[in-house]
Amino acid sequence: MVLAALKGGRVPVELQQEAAEMLAPVRAEARDATAWQGMQAAARADAGVREAMEAVVTQQLALRQQFASGQHSEVVIKCRELDPRESGDETVLLATLASAVVKDGGEWARWSEEIVRRNPQPEVVAWIGQIRRETGM
């Protein structure tokens, strides 16, 4: 209802900016849900799309399991061939942390820079700086 009121101009002008900022996460979630529904429909309609989605999920799960089981070198090796700008948030995070654990400075720089590019908030920059200091990167 609030989204409709905002879109329809029924929210007082002095509250519009504040309301829009507060509703931004709701709008993003709705876009994500719509995109997910579209992907599910495409997978139901096309076996090739379904297989591609299954392959991506399987690969991500394997990366997550390697990280969780302490196989950080394997995570770094797997991620070395990936482009950070084209990788999902979880991959970027796992690659950053794994490269810090194994102290691979080149990979650490690539992946941690991508985290900061995507999340330039001061607390994220400070967190990356803290990891850099603690690991000697």
Provide an overview of this structure.
- By secondary structure, the protein is an all-alpha fold.
- It folds into two domains: 1-45, no CATH class; 49-137.
- 81% of the residues lie in helices and 0% in strands.
- It contains seven helices and no strands.
- The protein has helices at 2-7, 13-45, 47-68, 72-80, 89-101, 105-118, 122-135.
- The longest helix is centred in the first third of the chain and has 33 residues, at 13-45.
- The chain is flat, with a radius of gyration of 20 Å.
- 17% of the residues are buried.
Provide a quick synopsis of the model.
This protein has 137 residues and is an all-alpha fold. Helices cover 81% and strands 0% of the residues. The protein is built from seven helices and no strands.
Per-chain topology:
Layout lengths: L1 H6 L5 H33 L1 H22 L3 H9 L8 H13 L3 H14 L3 H14 L2
Label this structure with key terms:
mainly alpha, about 80% helix
Helical stretch count? 7
Into which percentage range does the β-strand content fall? under 5%
Distance between the termini: 50 Å
* Helical proportion, percent range: over 70%
Biggest beta-sheet profile: none
Number of domains: 2
> What is the general shape?
flat
Query: What structural class do the secondary elements suggest?
Result: mainly alpha
**Mean pLDDT across all amino acids:** 86
Number of strands: 0
Topology as a string of helices (H) and strands (E): HHHHHHH
Please tell me how large the radius of gyration is. Answer: 20 Å
**Contiguous uncertain segments of 5+ residues:** none
